[in-house]
Amino acid sequence: MDRYVRDTLHWRSPGQDRQARAITALRIKKAFSLLPKKVLGLFLSHNRRLTIEVVEDTPIPLGMRTAAEGPAGARGYTISLHDEELARPEEFFIGSFLRELGHVVAERPPEDEWPKPRAERARFKERLESRADAMVWRWGLRHYGMIHLSATYPQHRLDAIVADIARVLLEEEDVY
Known about the structure:
Layout: H1 2-8, E1 9-11, H2 18-34, H3 37-44, E2 49-55, E3 64-69, E4 76-82, H4 83-86, H5 90-105, H6 118-138, H7 142-152, H8 155-171
Parallel strand pairs: 1-2, 2-4
Antiparallel strand pairs: 3-4
């Protein structure tokens, strides 16, 4: 696990000192260690190619993001963590990171494969987010997902998100 995280984690931001880098690596290892063995195997066997980048903050807070590239079956994924995320409480960080791992396990497609009309694109993105959250719940890590969601969204939006996750869980019962 140490080697996997060391090989996967890349620092694109000069703003972090040695201690902050060590804490971030430990949090990422902890998140991976929480995954079910079958899911962890996807990463350690490189069946899901992953790069984790720590990047500088932007003027608008973006949180963590997952980007996919390449054709289906040979996709690579990049999870970008902004400096601001590293200062969050550990449980929030892990919840956010697990959601991004959910995108990777669910094989989120690259944005150029998303629907083109704006309304369809927004619904598609919302569905992808619900699938990633549902993955975290399936793995038995719902509490981490809820920590992230509760800290990120107002209550009325959180209720709608939880209903969407429940719908996805019912529709897609046999996915990792």
